[in-house]
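User: Earlier you gave me the apo prediction for this protein. Now I'd like the version with flavin-adenine dinucleotide bound, so I can compare the two side by side. Same sequence as before, with the ligand SMILES added.
Assistant: Got it. Here's the input I'm using:
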Amino acid sequence: MKTFNYHTPKDVKEASKLASTSSAFLAGGMTTIPSLKLGLATYKDVIDIKSIKKLSGIKVSGKSVTIGATTKHAEVAASKDVQKAIPALTKLAGNIGDAQVRNRGTIGGSISNNDPSACYPSACMALNAVIHTNSRKIPAAKFFTGMFETALKKGELVEAVEFEVPEKADYQKHPNPASRYAIIGVFVAKHKKEVNVAVTGAKSSVYIDKDLSKKLTSSFSSSAIEGMKLDHSEMNSDMHASSEYRANLVSLYAKKAVEAC
Ligand SMILES: Cc1cc2nc3c(=O)[nH]c(=O)nc-3n(C[C@H](O)[C@H](O)[C@H](O)COP(=O)(O)OP(=O)(O)OC[C@H]3O[C@@H](n4cnc5c(N)ncnc54)[C@H](O)[C@@H]3O)c2cc1C
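And here is the structure of the complex with flavin-adenine dinucleotide:
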Protein backbone atom coordinates (compact mmCIF):
# COMPACT_ATOMS: atom_id res chain seq x y z
CA MET A 1 0.00 0.00 0.00
CA LYS A 2 1.42 3.37 -1.06
CA THR A 3 0.52 6.19 1.26
CA PHE A 4 0.85 9.92 0.68
CA ASN A 5 -0.95 13.12 1.59
CA TYR A 6 -3.27 14.28 -1.20
CA HIS A 7 -3.77 18.04 -1.47
CA THR A 8 -6.14 20.11 -3.58
CA PRO A 9 -4.82 23.68 -3.32
CA LYS A 10 -7.15 26.48 -4.40
CA ASP A 11 -4.49 28.57 -6.12
CA VAL A 12 -0.90 28.60 -7.37
CA LYS A 13 0.44 30.25 -4.20
CA GLU A 14 -0.95 27.49 -1.98
CA ALA A 15 0.25 24.77 -4.39
CA SER A 16 3.77 26.18 -4.39
CA LYS A 17 3.82 26.47 -0.60
CA LEU A 18 2.90 22.79 -0.19
CA ALA A 19 5.81 21.64 -2.38
CA SER A 20 8.88 19.99 -0.85
CA THR A 21 11.72 17.74 -2.01
CA SER A 22 9.37 14.76 -1.61
CA SER A 23 6.29 16.06 -3.36
CA ALA A 24 4.89 15.98 -6.89
CA PHE A 25 2.36 18.13 -8.63
CA LEU A 26 -0.48 16.12 -10.11
CA ALA A 27 -1.54 17.47 -13.50
CA GLY A 28 -2.88 14.65 -15.72
CA GLY A 29 -1.03 12.01 -13.68
CA MET A 30 0.14 10.26 -16.85
CA THR A 31 3.68 10.01 -15.50
CA THR A 32 3.16 10.55 -11.77
CA ILE A 33 0.54 7.81 -11.24
CA PRO A 34 2.38 4.98 -13.08
CA SER A 35 5.63 6.02 -11.36
CA LEU A 36 3.93 5.71 -7.96
CA LYS A 37 2.21 2.42 -8.82
CA LEU A 38 5.40 0.83 -10.14
CA GLY A 39 7.39 2.00 -7.14
CA LEU A 40 9.70 4.12 -9.32
CA ALA A 41 8.91 7.17 -7.20
CA THR A 42 7.58 7.77 -3.71
CA TYR A 43 6.12 11.06 -2.56
CA LYS A 44 5.07 12.33 0.84
CA ASP A 45 2.72 14.85 -0.75
CA VAL A 46 0.82 14.76 -4.03
CA ILE A 47 -0.43 18.23 -4.93
CA ASP A 48 -3.34 18.14 -7.36
CA ILE A 49 -3.27 21.29 -9.52
CA LYS A 50 -6.02 20.29 -11.95
CA SER A 51 -8.72 22.50 -10.48
CA ILE A 52 -6.65 25.71 -10.42
CA LYS A 53 -8.52 27.60 -13.16
CA LYS A 54 -5.71 30.05 -13.90
CA LEU A 55 -3.52 27.20 -15.20
CA SER A 56 -5.79 26.10 -18.04
CA GLY A 57 -6.70 27.62 -21.39
CA ILE A 58 -5.35 28.87 -24.71
CA LYS A 59 -4.71 32.47 -25.81
CA VAL A 60 -3.74 33.35 -29.36
CA SER A 61 -2.51 36.75 -30.50
CA GLY A 62 -0.92 37.76 -33.79
CA LYS A 63 2.58 36.97 -32.57
CA SER A 64 2.16 34.28 -29.94
CA VAL A 65 0.21 31.27 -28.74
CA THR A 66 0.04 30.87 -24.96
CA ILE A 67 -1.10 27.57 -23.52
CA GLY A 68 -1.91 27.12 -19.84
CA ALA A 69 0.02 24.41 -18.01
CA THR A 70 -2.89 22.07 -17.30
CA THR A 71 -4.32 22.32 -20.82
CA LYS A 72 -4.64 18.80 -22.14
CA HIS A 73 -3.07 17.57 -25.36
CA ALA A 74 -6.56 16.83 -26.77
CA GLU A 75 -7.58 20.46 -26.18
CA VAL A 76 -4.56 21.76 -28.07
CA ALA A 77 -5.15 19.24 -30.87
CA ALA A 78 -8.78 20.38 -31.20
CA SER A 79 -8.13 24.14 -30.96
CA LYS A 80 -9.13 25.98 -34.15
CA ASP A 81 -7.18 29.04 -32.97
CA VAL A 82 -3.96 27.07 -32.51
CA GLN A 83 -4.56 25.28 -35.82
CA LYS A 84 -4.79 28.66 -37.56
CA ALA A 85 -1.73 30.18 -35.87
CA ILE A 86 0.64 27.19 -35.61
CA PRO A 87 -0.81 24.09 -37.31
CA ALA A 88 2.36 22.12 -36.48
CA LEU A 89 1.45 22.41 -32.79
CA THR A 90 -2.02 20.87 -33.20
CA LYS A 91 -0.42 18.14 -35.30
CA LEU A 92 2.14 17.43 -32.57
CA ALA A 93 -0.49 17.37 -29.80
CA GLY A 94 -2.83 15.18 -31.86
CA ASN A 95 -0.15 12.53 -32.29
CA ILE A 96 0.90 12.21 -28.64
CA GLY A 97 0.31 8.74 -27.22
CA ASP A 98 -3.26 7.52 -27.56
CA ALA A 99 -6.69 9.04 -26.91
CA GLN A 100 -6.50 8.29 -23.17
CA VAL A 101 -3.09 9.95 -22.81
CA ARG A 102 -4.22 12.96 -24.85
CA ASN A 103 -7.31 13.38 -22.68
CA ARG A 104 -5.32 13.38 -19.42
CA GLY A 105 -1.77 14.48 -20.25
CA THR A 106 -0.91 18.18 -20.06
CA ILE A 107 1.63 20.49 -21.64
CA GLY A 108 2.93 21.59 -18.22
CA GLY A 109 3.41 17.99 -17.11
CA SER A 110 5.12 17.10 -20.37
CA ILE A 111 7.72 19.86 -20.26
CA SER A 112 8.28 19.67 -16.49
CA ASN A 113 8.94 15.95 -16.76
CA ASN A 114 11.27 16.53 -19.76
CA ASP A 115 11.30 12.93 -20.94
CA PRO A 116 14.08 12.67 -23.57
CA SER A 117 11.49 11.29 -26.04
CA ALA A 118 8.67 13.75 -25.35
CA CYS A 119 7.31 15.79 -28.25
CA TYR A 120 6.49 19.22 -26.71
CA PRO A 121 10.08 20.11 -25.69
CA SER A 122 11.05 20.16 -29.38
CA ALA A 123 8.22 22.60 -30.16
CA CYS A 124 9.33 24.80 -27.26
CA MET A 125 12.90 24.94 -28.56
CA ALA A 126 12.05 25.49 -32.24
CA LEU A 127 9.32 28.06 -31.52
CA ASN A 128 11.49 30.14 -29.13
CA ALA A 129 9.01 29.44 -26.34
CA VAL A 130 9.06 31.25 -23.03
CA ILE A 131 8.03 29.21 -20.00
CA HIS A 132 5.99 31.29 -17.54
CA THR A 133 6.31 30.08 -13.96
CA ASN A 134 4.89 31.50 -10.75
CA SER A 135 8.14 33.41 -10.19
CA ARG A 136 9.80 34.13 -13.57
CA LYS A 137 9.90 33.68 -17.34
CA ILE A 138 12.41 31.11 -18.64
CA PRO A 139 13.42 30.85 -22.31
CA ALA A 140 13.10 27.25 -23.56
CA ALA A 141 16.83 27.20 -24.39
CA LYS A 142 17.53 27.51 -20.64
CA PHE A 143 14.61 25.44 -19.36
CA PHE A 144 15.55 21.92 -20.52
CA THR A 145 18.77 21.17 -18.66
CA GLY A 146 19.20 17.38 -19.04
CA MET A 147 17.51 13.99 -19.00
CA PHE A 148 14.28 14.41 -16.96
CA GLU A 149 15.77 17.68 -15.66
CA THR A 150 14.67 21.27 -15.99
CA ALA A 151 15.56 24.67 -14.56
CA LEU A 152 12.50 24.51 -12.25
CA LYS A 153 13.27 25.04 -8.57
CA LYS A 154 11.50 23.50 -5.59
CA GLY A 155 7.94 24.77 -5.45
CA GLU A 156 8.21 26.48 -8.85
CA LEU A 157 5.16 25.82 -10.94
CA VAL A 158 4.80 26.15 -14.72
CA GLU A 159 1.80 28.39 -15.34
CA ALA A 160 1.88 28.64 -19.14
CA VAL A 161 3.99 28.18 -22.26
CA GLU A 162 4.20 31.06 -24.75
CA PHE A 163 5.16 30.06 -28.31
CA GLU A 164 6.31 32.48 -31.00
CA VAL A 165 4.20 32.21 -34.16
CA PRO A 166 6.59 31.26 -36.99
CA GLU A 167 6.25 31.91 -40.71
CA LYS A 168 6.11 28.15 -41.27
CA ALA A 169 6.63 25.02 -39.19
CA ASP A 170 6.18 21.27 -39.17
CA TYR A 171 6.75 18.38 -36.77
CA GLN A 172 7.74 14.92 -37.97
CA LYS A 173 7.95 11.99 -35.58
CA HIS A 174 9.19 8.43 -35.94
CA PRO A 175 7.08 6.97 -33.13
CA ASN A 176 7.75 4.02 -30.90
CA PRO A 177 5.09 1.60 -32.20
CA ALA A 178 3.87 0.78 -28.67
CA SER A 179 3.88 4.07 -26.72
CA ARG A 180 4.01 6.59 -29.62
CA TYR A 181 6.80 8.46 -27.80
CA ALA A 182 9.38 9.75 -30.31
CA ILE A 183 12.19 7.40 -31.28
CA ILE A 184 13.14 10.64 -32.92
CA GLY A 185 11.04 13.76 -33.50
CA VAL A 186 12.08 16.80 -35.53
CA PHE A 187 10.39 20.20 -35.20
CA VAL A 188 11.37 22.66 -37.94
CA ALA A 189 10.32 26.30 -37.53
CA LYS A 190 11.06 29.05 -40.03
CA HIS A 191 11.09 32.45 -38.37
CA LYS A 192 11.68 35.79 -40.09
CA LYS A 193 15.44 35.77 -39.47
CA GLU A 194 16.33 32.18 -38.64
CA VAL A 195 15.32 28.55 -38.94
CA ASN A 196 15.34 26.34 -35.85
CA VAL A 197 15.55 22.57 -36.11
CA ALA A 198 14.83 21.03 -32.71
CA VAL A 199 15.30 17.31 -32.13
CA THR A 200 13.82 15.04 -29.48
CA GLY A 201 14.43 11.34 -28.82
CA ALA A 202 17.92 11.29 -30.27
CA LYS A 203 20.00 12.35 -27.25
CA SER A 204 19.60 12.56 -23.47
CA SER A 205 17.57 15.75 -23.82
CA VAL A 206 16.02 17.89 -26.53
CA TYR A 207 18.47 20.06 -28.54
CA ILE A 208 18.78 22.37 -31.53
CA ASP A 209 20.70 20.79 -34.39
CA LYS A 210 22.96 23.70 -35.28
CA ASP A 211 24.15 22.27 -38.62
CA LEU A 212 20.66 21.65 -39.98
CA SER A 213 19.44 25.01 -38.63
CA LYS A 214 22.34 26.87 -40.26
CA LYS A 215 21.89 25.22 -43.66
CA LEU A 216 18.15 25.88 -43.65
CA THR A 217 18.62 29.48 -42.52
CA SER A 218 20.80 30.02 -45.62
CA SER A 219 18.39 28.22 -47.90
CA PHE A 220 15.00 26.96 -46.77
CA SER A 221 14.67 24.01 -49.12
CA SER A 222 14.85 20.25 -48.68
CA SER A 223 17.67 20.08 -51.24
CA ALA A 224 19.85 22.17 -48.90
CA ILE A 225 19.94 19.29 -46.39
CA GLU A 226 19.45 16.33 -48.76
CA GLY A 227 21.51 13.35 -47.53
CA MET A 228 23.20 15.38 -44.80
CA LYS A 229 25.25 13.11 -42.50
CA LEU A 230 24.96 13.97 -38.81
CA ASP A 231 27.34 13.16 -35.97
CA HIS A 232 25.84 10.19 -34.07
CA SER A 233 28.50 9.90 -31.36
CA GLU A 234 26.26 11.36 -28.63
CA MET A 235 23.04 9.82 -29.87
CA ASN A 236 21.06 7.15 -28.01
CA SER A 237 21.45 3.53 -29.03
CA ASP A 238 18.89 1.02 -27.76
CA MET A 239 16.71 -1.92 -28.79
CA HIS A 240 14.57 0.41 -30.93
CA ALA A 241 17.28 2.16 -32.94
CA SER A 242 21.06 2.39 -33.09
CA SER A 243 22.71 5.81 -32.90
CA GLU A 244 23.61 5.60 -36.61
CA TYR A 245 19.98 4.86 -37.50
CA ARG A 246 18.77 7.74 -35.31
CA ALA A 247 21.20 10.15 -37.01
CA ASN A 248 19.90 9.07 -40.39
CA LEU A 249 16.29 9.48 -39.24
CA VAL A 250 16.92 13.00 -37.93
CA SER A 251 18.36 14.07 -41.28
CA LEU A 252 15.54 12.39 -43.22
CA TYR A 253 12.73 13.72 -41.00
CA ALA A 254 14.14 17.25 -41.08
CA LYS A 255 13.88 17.04 -44.87
CA LYS A 256 10.32 15.70 -44.61
CA ALA A 257 9.40 18.54 -42.26
CA VAL A 258 10.75 21.19 -44.65
CA GLU A 259 8.81 19.60 -47.52
CA ALA A 260 5.62 19.63 -45.38
CA CYS A 261 5.98 23.32 -44.44
C1 LIG B 1 1.35 5.41 -22.75
C2 LIG B 1 1.91 6.80 -22.85
C3 LIG B 1 2.27 7.29 -24.09
C4 LIG B 1 2.81 8.57 -24.21
N1 LIG B 1 3.18 9.02 -25.45
C5 LIG B 1 3.72 10.26 -25.56
C6 LIG B 1 4.09 10.77 -26.84
O1 LIG B 1 3.90 10.16 -27.89
N2 LIG B 1 4.68 12.01 -26.87
C7 LIG B 1 4.85 12.77 -25.74
O2 LIG B 1 5.33 13.88 -25.83
N3 LIG B 1 4.47 12.32 -24.54
C8 LIG B 1 3.90 11.09 -24.42
N4 LIG B 1 3.50 10.66 -23.19
C9 LIG B 1 3.63 11.59 -22.03
C10 LIG B 1 2.30 12.31 -21.74
O3 LIG B 1 1.92 13.00 -22.89
C11 LIG B 1 2.33 13.30 -20.56
O4 LIG B 1 2.49 14.62 -20.96
C12 LIG B 1 3.39 13.02 -19.55
O5 LIG B 1 3.27 11.68 -19.14
C13 LIG B 1 3.21 13.94 -18.32
O6 LIG B 1 1.96 13.64 -17.78
P1 LIG B 1 0.99 14.71 -17.13
O7 LIG B 1 0.85 15.88 -17.97
O8 LIG B 1 -0.24 13.96 -16.79
O9 LIG B 1 1.79 15.17 -15.83
P2 LIG B 1 1.91 14.45 -14.38
O10 LIG B 1 2.12 12.99 -14.57
O11 LIG B 1 0.75 14.85 -13.54
O12 LIG B 1 3.22 15.15 -13.86
C14 LIG B 1 4.48 14.81 -14.40
C15 LIG B 1 5.61 15.57 -13.68
O13 LIG B 1 5.54 16.94 -13.98
C16 LIG B 1 5.41 17.74 -12.81
N5 LIG B 1 4.42 18.77 -13.13
C17 LIG B 1 3.21 18.61 -13.69
N6 LIG B 1 2.63 19.78 -13.94
C18 LIG B 1 3.51 20.74 -13.54
C19 LIG B 1 3.50 22.17 -13.53
N7 LIG B 1 2.48 22.86 -14.03
N8 LIG B 1 4.58 22.81 -13.03
C20 LIG B 1 5.64 22.13 -12.54
N9 LIG B 1 5.72 20.79 -12.52
C21 LIG B 1 4.66 20.09 -13.01
C22 LIG B 1 4.95 16.79 -11.70
O14 LIG B 1 5.44 17.21 -10.44
C23 LIG B 1 5.57 15.48 -12.14
O15 LIG B 1 6.91 15.40 -11.71
C24 LIG B 1 2.95 9.39 -23.05
C25 LIG B 1 2.57 8.89 -21.79
C26 LIG B 1 2.05 7.63 -21.68
C27 LIG B 1 1.62 7.13 -20.32
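For your comparison, keep in mind: The mean pLDDT is 96.
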